[in-house]
Design a protein that fits this description.
The chain is mainly α. It has one domain. Helix content is about 70%, strand content about 0%. The protein has a two-stranded antiparallel ribbon. A hairpin with a 2-residue loop joins β1 and β2. The two termini are about 30 Å apart. About 35% of the residues are buried.
């Protein structure tokens, strides 16, 4: 087993365990209005992904079902920091999440990560449950409903188990390879 695979098998379960907290961190950042409009769209696109009916990996898949959500949140944080530019306060809040995207980049390797990056980048222009990200930015009532749904997710989320089986990494890459647009 490679060092990267070993690191993934150690880190991915912690990401599953912190998924609710990660959503809360992103939500707090947007709610506190710490982001410019483009950074806000990146963050909201990442959170809105949680509510997509057809995500990259169905949530019910044992061990890996919520890892796509964890990956999306980390890359959304990275994109938000890039969109915001130099901002120490935002970097302090989102930096730890964004740093995780480096492991994702290494794990997925260049071509698959490029596809994943394009996919996550388009989430800010997408919709889930009939809500576009632009509507969440522009409509206070819709954002409040969304915020409450996200808070409910945070309260109710229970981290699934994740066994340190290298086959889980193979399945994870296979889902990304099959589901990400080329």
């Amino acid at each position: 087993m490679s060092d990267i695979e070993q690191k993934c098998l150690e880190i991915f379960p912690t990401w599953l365990g912190s998924l609710g907290e990660d959503v809360q961190t992103l939500l707090d950042t947007v709610t506190a209005d710490q982001c410019n409009a483009e950074a806000k769209r990146c963050v909201l696109g990442g959170i809105n992904y949680l509510f997509k009916s057809l995500d990259l990996i169905p949530d019910g898949i044992d061990d890996i079902g919520y890892l796509d959500d964890a990956f999306v949140l980390r890359l959304s944080a990275r994109l938000a920091l890039k969109a915001q530019g130099e901002d120490a306060a935002l970097s302090e809040k989102l930096g730890p999440l964004a740093e995780g995207s480096e492991l994702i980049e290494t794990f997925l390797e260049e071509t698959l990560f490029e596809r994943f990056g394009r996919y996550v980048g388009r989430l800010s222009k997408g919709a889930a449950r009939g809500r576009t990200v632009d509507e969440l930015v522009d409509d206070g009532a819709m954002f409040e409903e969304f915020r409450q749904e996200a808070q409910s997710f945070v309260r109710e989320y229970t981290a699934p188990s994740f066994s340190a089986d290298p086959k889980n990494l193979i399945k994870l890459k296979a889902f990304f390879g099959a589901k990400l647009p080329k």
